């Protein structure tokens, strides 16, 4: 099963089992089923609770917050995650704050789904990974779709939190198969933090990465192992923020993400790991991310900006051999 | 969808011969006394942060209250003390909230602009509550037909894009949404003429949403005007009810840049002297009682420990 189908199945299951859940977004209704077809079939099965909306990201995020206030659950699809900037006020100043600013906890069951990432030539305003802009908002949890965790579990967990959540879905994952890892590496854990490693071997380093770049990291892990005899273990947390990670016994850690330089999610991960594990690390956590740039449209220019397997390989090797 | 557009204006010269009930008058005077007390506490350095009083606009929520039901939601804004007091009659809880004392409605976290109690909720960002109210009314329409959401906004709020997104949804989805516009002619320091092209009526008409306008301060006249349209809201026909009103005081505190003439004009339109003149003896008695109550509330709350 591909990631897109897994997401679609998760939404079907969620709406089937929880009759309060509404889904809103632009062009989400059948036969179109959303720009990336993640909502396919939902409006046919649940016509009362699936609302195809005007191009109004601010308002539909507010509508989700209103449904949540009234006790319903709500899932909002941003057609492109870039457009979540238009929903920032409703999400940050209202939905997330409402959890605690009224003095007692107000449950807010809502999820903003954000297709993110480049590699498709959509250009500067349809290719970003905006995760970093949402890090550190009280009452707002961040998740990223991974090929190593069933999205039904992810949605159940997000709604269970009863606070607004953003789910970042890297668009390049949609056509990827779930749970697929090529030997000799093996997927060892599938829970909140998936682990991909070489069974029985002690790694030279750990690479922490969001689900969207997992395959790029795995490609680098393969060349590092085959060409350089460097062994990495990959950790893919389902929840990006708040950060919760248990490290295997290693003294070198890398964080890989597609977001551009400056104020990154990786910097937050590094801060958490430094605070907990400074004494056993032989150097600071190394951040690997895209360049400090807009994301160009032309394929060769886009490749130069976005983080890729080669950059991951090169940075890990240079850091370990320095 | 076809919606008839009403636009009426009420001559505001007189208040009803019968006058407001004791309860209505007490509500009006209690809110007035509460707001005056806040400014007094500020001057004495006893309040933290800022506040926005509704002096001059007290009659709007008082007029609306009997048109609302317990199941209705009310969304308020930065200038919301009158809205809260008309809805919950709880000056102790509100003052404790504003002062961060024991008994605060929201534990002192929200303060003047962020209050939630039962189905009443205020937020401090302009235009933010309208989309939220669309979500609530979407729920009500299915789960509790007949209930509505009443959202207070100001003339300045129309600068926000979210207002238009929400009005579009309300009309499109036929939501039971009552938008009450307190058009006091000034957004903080900027007169409406300098920040709004066109009219509020024109904006409502653009979405096929019914619009009523009144410059009356007469509670009975306002209720008579609004009652049928509010009943229609409950059937899924949203309404923009525009009150041409007057802000007597500053935007928050000590920041009134209006000239003496403008401020005098606002005072000339105030409900307070009109109601006083209409029934001097009863008015004076109820006013004294309201002030005494608020004095007692303030003495009580200021003596409490932190929330």
UniProtKB/TrEMBL annotation, chain A:
Signal peptide: none annotated. Its cofactor is thiamine diphosphate. It is an enzyme of class 1 (oxidoreductase). It comes from the Bacteria. Its EC number is 1.2.4.1. SMART domains: Transket_pyr. Keywords: Oxidoreductase, Pyruvate, Thiamine pyrophosphate. The keyword Isomerase does not apply. It catalyses: N(6)-[(R)-lipoyl]-L-lysyl-[protein] + pyruvate + H(+) = N(6)-[(R)-S(8)-acetyldihydrolipoyl]-L-lysyl-[protein] + CO2. Residues 1-176 form the Transketolase-like pyrimidine-binding domain. The pyruvate dehydrogenase complex catalyzes the overall conversion of pyruvate to acetyl-CoA and CO2. This is Pyruvate dehydrogenase E1 component subunit beta.
